[in-house]
């Protein structure tokens, strides 16, 4: 884990080395407005230690990072850490809303589909979800915006404000994951339902629903939990497409803006911050998994 | 049989669209870039513009035919690169173990730790825009998942009877890897590869839609979608056709992938997740 975190810092650091051209000249030159003199460039280099070997630079940079200094944005000149921090509440809100929506349709859908597996509804849902998964997010978003937002004016189409602003982006960003949970849960439940203890429960005269919810669900649910963590960790970086389309002031939109503005420090910080968050989330999931599923505790590996 | 049906549907969809894109210069009735302002918004299903014309009077059918060339080429190349890199590293790590495995696992874990979208976008922002950058950015995070799966498979295959037998008869490591292990990776990699291909098309479309993928005026499906947004109500055909064709391509890839998975029973054999 520590190694992975270190690896992420190396990747983020090396991203700077990948910038085409001399970053110092870009920084001083302001998009080619004026050419910095060689003297200026040299001075800048020694001042910021850019003339030292790469690994020395890396450790200096790492020291800054550990002190919470991620550099300043090229565009706004403000500390990058602050820029990202300001965007986090909006992204978190959207992530949670999308996540809740996904869990809602995923769990309900998964249980219902398992209950009615093999029926026409099951097949129909399979076809519809396959189609849905094949549509680009922005396509779904644009259709929803034009129908619900512009034609019938049910929901606002952009920005952040009341809960009604939240509905469309949450639905769009959560639906794909919801479908994934739905299918995974259905498969798991069907597998679990083949076990002997289910047969035993049924033989005791429990109703089919009770067997499904009380006996099968806890077992089918555990592996879905892993997906939760991966998704939440990933979406904390914001969903750039959704946020851009709905003009949602979150981190994902900031990322896209950073690309347009070629804001290197901001891009670097993104890789670093969200890489670390992602790894932290994975660790958290592992811990939860450990408590919820006795099978993965040391000594017993599930096959 | 139904499973094979799924696979064949997917294959047919992909071959038809891929073939049409490949043969675009011969099939398209008009020049996709030719602007004719006196012929804007021609309605679809009429001669000579079978799918109508767009806001600049360009023929939609021709643009659709050309519109997939770059995306599909990028997606195919990316899939090949991702598969080769993932398989190679996975095979090395799984077969040789020891420090090789240590190094590969370290790299894989590192890249797994960075959310794919963030990494792709960051690379696109840092590097000069272009074909190579797009290729690199798409592949940067996608090979690691494959490498991990391949490593797991190889760990399993290495201990199986036929590989041990080959080793006992004096076969070298590379012989075992190429002759005995590689062919056994193909089913899994075929499934993951076709799903990955759909993913690449999806990602590229999103990027182009945001204006950081394929650049206009080159006709591209996602770019056409973006151009069509102001006319969604007045001229829906401008939006519907490219949306439909992107969906069909990804649908084809998904069908192929899932059909393969069902037909080869990959998932239940060695526990590969849904995604």
Structural class computed from helices and strand pairing of chain B? mainly alpha
Structural class of chain A: mainly alpha
- CATH level 3 topology of chain B: MetI-like fold
Find the count of extended strands of chain A (DSSP E, 2+ residues): 0
Approximate helicity band of chain A: over 70%
pLDDT under 50 segments of chain A (min length 5)?
none
- CATH superfamily descriptor of chain B: MetI-like
Low-confidence stretches of chain B: 268-275
Secondary-structure element order of chain B, N to C: HHHHHHHHHHHHH
Estimated radius of gyration of chain B: 22 Å
The total strand number of chain B stands at 0
Query: Whole-number radius of gyration of chain A?
Result: 25 Å
> Number of helix segments of chain B?
13
Strand content of chain A: under 5%
Order of helices and strands of chain A: HHHHHHHHHHHHH
Structural notes for this entry:
The complex is a heterodimer of chains A (303) and B (275). Helices cover 73% and strands 0% of the residues of chain A. Chain A has 303 residues and is mainly α. Chain A is elongated and about 85 Å long. The two termini of chain A are 24 Å apart. The relative contact order of chain A is 0.13. Chain B is an all-alpha fold. Chain B has a single domain (69-268), classed as MetI-like fold (Orthogonal Bundle), CATH 1.10.3720. In chain B, helix 1 (2-22) packs across helix 12 (237-264) and helix 4 packs antiparallel against helix 5. Residues 268-275 of chain B have low confidence and may be disordered. The chains are: A mainly alpha (303), B mainly alpha (275).
């Amino acid at each position: 884990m520590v190694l992975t975190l270190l690896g992420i810092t190396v990747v983020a650091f090396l991203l700077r080395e990948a910038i085409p051209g001399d970053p110092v000249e870009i920084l001083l030159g302001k998009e080619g407005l004026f050419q910095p003199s060689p003297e200026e460039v040299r001075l800048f280099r020694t001042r910021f230690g850019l003339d030292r070997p790469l690994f020395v630079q890396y450790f200096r940079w790492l020291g800054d990072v550990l002190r919470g200094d991620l550099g300043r944005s090229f565009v706004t000149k403000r500390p990058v850490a602050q820029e990202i921090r300001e965007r986090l509440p909006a992204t978190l809100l959207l992530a949670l809303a999308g996540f809740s929506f996904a869990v809602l349709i995923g769990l309900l859908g998964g249980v219902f589909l398992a209950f009615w597996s093999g029926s026409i509804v099951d097949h129909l849902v399979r076809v519809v979800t396959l189609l849905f998964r094949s549509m680009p997010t922005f396509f779904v978003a644009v259709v929803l915006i034009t129908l619900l937002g512009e034609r019938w004016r049910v929901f606002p189409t952009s920005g952040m404000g009341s809960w009604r602003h939240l509905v469309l982006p949450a639905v769009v960003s959560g639906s794909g994951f919801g479908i994934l949970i739905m299918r995974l849960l259905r498969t798991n439940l069907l597998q679990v339902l083949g076990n002997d203890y289910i047969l035993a429960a049924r033989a005791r005269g429990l109703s089919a629903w009770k067997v499904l919810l009380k006996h099968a669900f806890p077992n089918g649910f555990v592996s879905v939990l892993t997906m939760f963590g991966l998704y939440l960790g990933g979406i904390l970086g914001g969903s750039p497409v959704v946020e851009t389309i709905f003009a949602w002031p979150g981190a994902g939109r900031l990322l896209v803006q950073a690309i347009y503005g070629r804001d290197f420090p901001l891009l670097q910080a993104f890789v670093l911050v969200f890489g670390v968050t992602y790894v932290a989330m994975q660790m958290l999931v592992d811990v939860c998994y450990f408590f919820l599923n006795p099978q993965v505790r040391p000594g017993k590996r599930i096959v | 049989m139904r499973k094979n049906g799924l696979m064949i549907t997917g294959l047919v969809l992909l071959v038809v669209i891929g073939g049409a894109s490949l043969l675009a210069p011969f099939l398209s009735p008009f020049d996709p870039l030719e602007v004719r302002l006196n012929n804007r918004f021609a309605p679809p299903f009429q001669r000579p513009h079978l799918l109508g014309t767009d806001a600049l009077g360009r023929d939609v059918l021709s643009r659709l035919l050309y519109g997939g060339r770059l995306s599909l080429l990028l997606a195919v190349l990316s899939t090949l690169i991702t598969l080769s890199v993932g398989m190679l590293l996975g095979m090395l790590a799984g077969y040789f173990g020891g420090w090789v495995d240590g190094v590969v696992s370290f790299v894989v874990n590192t890249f797994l730790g960075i959310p794919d979208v963030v990494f792709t976008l960051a690379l696109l922002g840092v590097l000069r825009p272009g074909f190579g950058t797009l290729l690199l950015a798409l592949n940067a995070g996608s090979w690691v998942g494959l490498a991990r799966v391949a490593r797991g498979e190889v760990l399993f295959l290495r201990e199986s009877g036929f590989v041990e037998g080959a080793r006992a008869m004096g076969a070298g490591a590379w012989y075992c890897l190429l002759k005995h292990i590689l062919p056994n990776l193909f089913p899994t990699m075929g499934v993951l590869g076709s799903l990955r291909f759909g993913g690449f098309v999806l990602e590229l479309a999103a990027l182009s839609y945001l204006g950081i993928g394929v650049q206009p005026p080159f006709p591209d499906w996602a770019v056409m979608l973006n151009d069509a947004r102001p006319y969604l109500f007045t001229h829906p055909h401008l939006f519907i056709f490219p949306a439909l064709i992107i969906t069909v391509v990804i649908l084809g890839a998904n069908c192929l992938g899932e059909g393969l998975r069902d037909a080869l029973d990959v998932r239940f054999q060695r526990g590969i997740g849904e995604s």
